[in-house]
C-alpha cells in the first residue's frame, strides 16, 4: 500500500515537494478554487492554520479547475488572489485534477482511503477536505459544506494521539 508520504506534488511555484516532509504532522488537505461559492473557506483554512501551525498542523491547498471551471487562473494569479483576499500563508500547490484518469496520485490515494457517501470515491466539488493523522492515514473526509472551523475538535483529538 502506498503512503501519502511516498507521493510528491508540485508547489504553486512549480518546485517538487515530497509529502514525506510532513511526516509526523496532522494534515488538512483540501482541493480549492478561487471562484467558488465556498471560496470564503480560505479564510477559515488560514485561521485553522494559524491556530495550530505551531502545534504540528499543516493545511495543504490544491487548486482544481474540474468543478464549473472555478479555478481558471495560472499559478501566479491563484497565489496573488489567495494572499490578497484571504491572507493565505499555508502551502498551496500547482493546479491538479482530483477526479478522472488524470487525477493526482495524492487524491487517488485519499479517495481510496476515505470514500465519500455510499462508498463513492469521486470528489463532488471544491473544498472537499481530508484530515490526516500524524502517521499519514486518513482520519476523515469532509464535504464542501463543512467549514474549516468545524474541524477544530477533530484536529485537537489528532494532536493528542
How would you describe what is shown here?
Helix 1 (about 40-50) links the parallel strand 3 and strand 4. The chain has one domain: 3-Layer(aba) Sandwich (Glutaredoxin). It is built from four helices and six strands. With about 160 residues, the chain is α+β, with helices and mostly antiparallel strands. About 40% of the residues are buried.
Q: Which parts are unreliable, with pLDDT below 50 for 5 consecutive residues or more? A: none
Total of domains: 1
Number of strands: 6
CATH superfamily, by name, is Glutaredoxin
Report mean pLDDT, rounded to a whole number.
93
CATH class: Alpha Beta
CATH domain fold name: Glutaredoxin
- How are helices and strands ordered from N to C? EEEHEHHEEH
Number of helices: 4
The level of helicity is 25-40%
Beta-strand proportion: 15-25%
Q: What profile does the largest beta sheet have?
A: 4 strands, mixed
Q: By helix and strand content, what is the structural category?
A: alpha+beta
- Output the strand order for the largest sheet: 4-3-5-6
- CATH-derived architecture: 3-Layer(aba) Sandwich
Radius of gyration: 14 Å
Fold topology:
Blueprint: E1 8-10, E2 16-18, E3 26-32, H1 41-52, E4 57-63, H2 75-86, H3 105-113, E5 129-132, E6 138-142, H4 152-160
Parallel strand pairs: 3-4
Antiparallel strand pairs: 1-2, 3-5, 5-6
